[in-house]
Amino acid sequence: MNKFQTFRVYQEGTEVVSRLESLGLDDLSSGDILIKTAYSSVNYKDALAATGKGKIIRNFPCIAGIDMSGHVVESNDDHIKEGDAVIVTGYDLGVAHDGGYSEYVRVPAEWVVALPNKMSLYDAMALGTAGFTVALCIQRLEENKQTPELGPFVVTGATGGVGTFAVDILSSLGYEVVAVSGKTESHSFLKDIGAKEVLDRNDIKLDGTPLEKGQWGGAIDNVGGDILSWLTRTVKPWGNIASVGLAGGNHLNTTVMPFILRGVSLIGITSSGCPTQYRQQLWERLATDLAPKHLDRIVTNKVTLDQLPSVFDNMLNGLTIGRTVVEINAD
Ligand SMILES: NC(=O)c1ccc[n+]([C@@H]2O[C@H](COP(=O)([O-])OP(=O)(O)OC[C@H]3O[C@@H](n4cnc5c(N)ncnc54)[C@H](OP(=O)(O)O)[C@@H]3O)[C@@H](O)[C@H]2O)c1
């Protein structure tokens, strides 16, 4: 096979640099399944990895991209056949194993999820890790008895990839969604995709007593830091907080009071480490009862591999809205 295009990240001295590079199949990380990539996507973690602003990549050089969808072209596994449409997200993809920003990806068979019947390869990457993470949050919240009746449900970092899907999907499930965003110009967009109310992140009082008035039935938090501390103080008895992200910081100052006096639960979410046996079920839910209603509005940007660098800095500066799909061998 001729060489093909990849977007690869190098460590050069103390610098992390990334660039387009033509590679051959022999250059790719090993695995049982070779997939021709149709689409990938851009997540916050991809932006941290490709710019070196986060210590994400563990094996240099590494093709970036923590998500991909495509068709199997070679398989050494009895359950996965040539021609199958598949999704790969998380595990070590784009972190310690060559990732989805490449025309071909080779991975272990256990990383491969079959594309659900009602989902296209494009939709799979419009959702990507962001959508999958929201499905995982909802599953964990439901297992811990979260219901719309517990009260208004907060989504922080609401205009981001995870945030927009959380707003859309939770509102369809009957939750009264309160979106927290730093973008005043996006309030009407957030209401269009399902938010009942939008709070300006800059209006939130970030210092408070260990227990303030309980206001929220629960929350999905993409921001961490002081906003997550505020959530622990203001979620009502028996509510759950799914801790997803650190866009605002990785610290957490709180006390045991919300946990021992209100029975509040802090649920850790790790999509890359999600056990294999849950993944197919969560993707099936994203094609059925958790399918977002506003996918077209949530995808705000489509790029090719050579356009990737234009996305990363805006994302890390909190300026992007919704999702960016990477078109590689588009349908
Ligand atoms: N645990 C997991 O499995 C998992 C999976 C996926 C993502 N994540 C993490 O979840 C977070 C969101 O990921 P994403 O892909 O949705 O990223 P994204 O699209 O860049 O969204 C992040 C959003 O957070 C808000 N934000 C940005 N900078 C902020 C700051 N300094 N202070 C407060 N809010 C800020 C912005 O929303 P507003 O302007 O609307 O406030 C921004 O749109 C990231 O930290 C990511 O690493 C974790």
Explain the layout of strands and helices.
Elements: E1 4-12, E2 15-23, E3 33-42, H1 44-51, E4 62-63, E5 67-75, E6 85-89, E7 104-107, E8 113-114, H2 121-143, E9 153-156, H3 161-172, E10 177-181, H4 187-192, E11 197-200, E12 216-221, H5 225-234, E13 235-243, H6 257-261, E14 265-268, H7 276-287, H8 295-298, E15 299-303, H9 309-316, E16 323-327
Parallel strand pairs: 9-10, 9-12, 10-11, 12-13, 13-14, 15-16
Antiparallel strand pairs: 1-2, 1-4, 3-5, 3-7, 3-16, 5-6, 6-8
Helix pairs in contact: 1-9, 2-3, 2-7
NADP nicotinamide-adenine-dinucleotide phosphate binds at residues 43-45, 129-130, 133, 157-163, 181-183, 201, 222-223, 244-248, 269-271, 315, 318, 320.
Descriptive keywords:
Quinone Oxidoreductase, Chain A, domain 1; Rossmann fold; 2 domains; seven-stranded mixed β-sheet; 331 residues; binds NADP nicotinamide-adenine-dinucleotide phosphate; alpha/beta; 9 helices; six-stranded parallel β-sheet
Structure description:
There is one protein chain. With 331 residues, the chain is α/β, with parallel strands linked by helices. It folds into two domains: 146 residues, Medium-chain alcohol dehydrogenases, catalytic domain (Quinone Oxidoreductase, Chain A, domain 1, Alpha-Beta Complex), CATH 3.90.180; 137 residues, Rossmann fold (3-Layer(aba) Sandwich). It contains nine helices and 16 strands. Strands 3, 5, 6, 7, 8, 15 and 16 form a seven-stranded mixed beta sheet that branches. A six-stranded parallel beta sheet has the order 11-10-9-12-13-14, sandwiched between helices. Strands 2-1-4 form a three-stranded antiparallel beta sheet, with helices on one face. Strand 1 and strand 2 form a beta hairpin. The chain is globular, with a radius of gyration of 20 Å. It binds NADP nicotinamide-adenine-dinucleotide phosphate. The site of NADP nicotinamide-adenine-dinucleotide phosphate has 30 residues, from helix 1, helix 2 and helix 3.
